[in-house]
């Protein structure tokens, strides 16, 4: 008989939480009892799991000693409120909110720095990084040894689903209003999102950087174990429902061997390299898939020490929910 | 009495050609007779100018000795076919297609390198660069003296209107099909364009670069008079009707003085700098305007020698038609 684990998912009604439950089922994760939790507004809803509807209950009232592992898939404030209670009850946790400091819950992407898990003590606390950092780490970690990466410049065009269901509905609503030539009144976004690009996601700090951009830079340095890596990050809101697209330019210590880069990308886990001349897109390729798609692999125009890439991946699935479940798969051997 | 000039516009029925005619009227350009020309398929249509509909005629049959200046706003093949006939007839020309080599028709953006015009002989031949290079040159030229620009990394998200009317209709059609949950059959684009980003515009060469990206790099070096400038360029097709958005990261020789950068951008011609914390977008700001909007001016995270900018501008107007008319305004003093 296989050993099972009792699991809690906090934020179970959100886009990431619901996908996480679905992936636990798809990957046949050894779940004993599944406890779905949310804030009081969302409690009472139900989410399907293994052919049954599981009722979502209030996280406030939950006894964390009932589970061995909790996924925190709600916002940073929820993690900060309930993580201490979980660990005090002996429950290990995987946080997707970015709320916990790296010393407390190191950020891990299995394809990049799984070895960090070996140094942890129970109850485990691990961070699942932001989708953009996760995608970049999956692709850059296997190339790290081959390339002397000096600098990364990334423009990430993010799907509205990163901001939850309300943002998805708002893009659909705005688009329909415009196509029907009705007046547009932006609600969720501060202006027209349909057929437009918004240059920032969230409010920038006094230096002009958004929290998402700072999180991306900080997490990518940790995941690649390159604490001094120079990273220029711009996160943009695109009129796309699902799937992030990243335009990446790397500066290297010397000329790039494109043949070797392609061979590494072809064989590395978690990556799908598209054929030369083709390119991957969010819709049609990445959405619903468990890999980061890579295309447009090319050196610079007149600069052999530059490597350019285009990445696209499912922000909710590969960028968040799947990474968290992959972390859980690595942790459970020591959870018993 | 003001002197007038007889003018031809080739490609008068295209998005750029039609806007160009409109701008000639708006700016009260001293047009005597306006000849609108196009290929045989588009001949017969008419375009409004000064309250009248001007009939579009076949370029094949046109006698270029009737005009002092011709705008070539059709594709490169049309320029290559008819530019020699125009100059042989003593007609000066402004080419928007990028077809003519720089030695024959130097690329000029008035805000960046107007002085190049002084060295030309009649009949004048001048190139109006691609919209992306034009936008970048308007913003980077006045900063060139202040910053030791070592490298430019740009991801340009282009509006579908850059590919003409058919692309605009196709984005609208695809979007409507999707919102009505009808099956999508891509026609103009090779896949779903609605709610998606396409990683390349046109077919890449053997090295992976598209013609548009190579044109951007080449033209920007010429416009800034920095022939060895390292430029990483990625041109992406966005589901946006009008207005290009550029995410730009510059590496500088030393720490950036943001106060000085902001002062230069505030006073330079052709630029609208948005307030700190705000950001400009294609829809709502740039479209229909005669300036390049600049926002998100910030140094790097932990790198004071990095400068990041977000530019957005009307690709058809400021990026093409208006620049060509501005060039004509500078040339006419010597055309008489």
UniProtKB/TrEMBL annotation, chains A, B:
EC number from the UniProt entry: 1.2.1.11
Pfam families: Semialdhyde_dh (PF01118), Semialdhyde_dhC (PF02774)
Family of this protein: Belongs to the aspartate-semialdehyde dehydrogenase family.
Protein name: Aspartate-semialdehyde dehydrogenase
Keyword Oxidoreductase assigned: yes
Top EC category: oxidoreductase
Species of provenance: Pseudomonas proteolytica
Signal peptide per UniProt: none
GO MF term set: aspartate-semialdehyde dehydrogenase activity; NAD binding; protein dimerization activity
Domain spans labelled Semialdehyde dehydrogenase NAD-binding: 6-120
NCBIfam families: PRK05671.1 (NF004224), PRK08040.1 (NF005957), PRK14874.1 (NF011456)
GO biological process: amino acid biosynthetic process
Keywords for this protein: Oxidoreductase
SUPFAM superfamilies: Glyceraldehyde-3-phosphate dehydrogenase-like, C-terminal domain (SSF55347), NAD(P)-binding Rossmann-fold domains (SSF51735)
């Amino acid at each position: 008989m296989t050993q099972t684990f009792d699991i809690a998912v906090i934020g179970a009604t959100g886009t990431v939480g619901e996908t996480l439950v679905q992936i636990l089922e798809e990957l046949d994760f050894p779940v004993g009892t599944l406890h779905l939790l949310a804030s009081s507004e969302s409690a009472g809803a139900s989410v399907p799991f293994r052919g049954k509807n599981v009722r979502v209950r209030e996280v406030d009232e939950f006894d964390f000693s009932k589970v061995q592992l909790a996924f925190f898939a709600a916002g940073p404030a929820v993690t900060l409120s309930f993580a201490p209670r979980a660990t005090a009850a002996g429950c290990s946790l995987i946080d997707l909110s970015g709320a916990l400091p790296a010393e407390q819950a190191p950020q891990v992407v299995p394809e990049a720095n799984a070895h960090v898990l070996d140094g942890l003590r129970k109850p485990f606390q691990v961070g699942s990084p932001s989708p953009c950092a996760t995608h970049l780490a999956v692709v850059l970690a296997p190339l790290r040894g081959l390339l002397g990466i000096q600098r990364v410049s990334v423009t990430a065009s993010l799907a509205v689903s990163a901001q939850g269901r309300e943002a998805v509905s708002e893009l659909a609503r705005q688009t329909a209003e415009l196509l029907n030539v009705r007046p547009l009144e932006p609600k969720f976004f501060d202006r027209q999102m349909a057929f437009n690009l918004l240059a920032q996601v969230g409010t920038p700090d006094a230096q002009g950087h958004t929290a998402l951009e700072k999180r991306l830079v900080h997490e990518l340095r940790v995941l690649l174990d390159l604490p001094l890596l120079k990273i220029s990050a711009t996160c943009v809101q695109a009129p796309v429902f699902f799937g992030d697209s990243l335009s990446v330019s790397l500066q290297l210590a010397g000329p790039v061997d494109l043949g070797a880069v392609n061979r590494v990308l072809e064989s590395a886990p978690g990556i799908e390299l598209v054929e030369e001349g083709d390119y991957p897109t969010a819709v049609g390729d990445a959405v619903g898939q468990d890999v980061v798609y890579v295309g447009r692999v090319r050196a610079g125009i007149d600069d052999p020490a530059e490597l350019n890439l285009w990445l696209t991946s499912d922000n909710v699935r590969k960028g968040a929910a799947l990474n968290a479940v992959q972390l859980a798969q690595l942790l459970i051997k020591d959870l018993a």
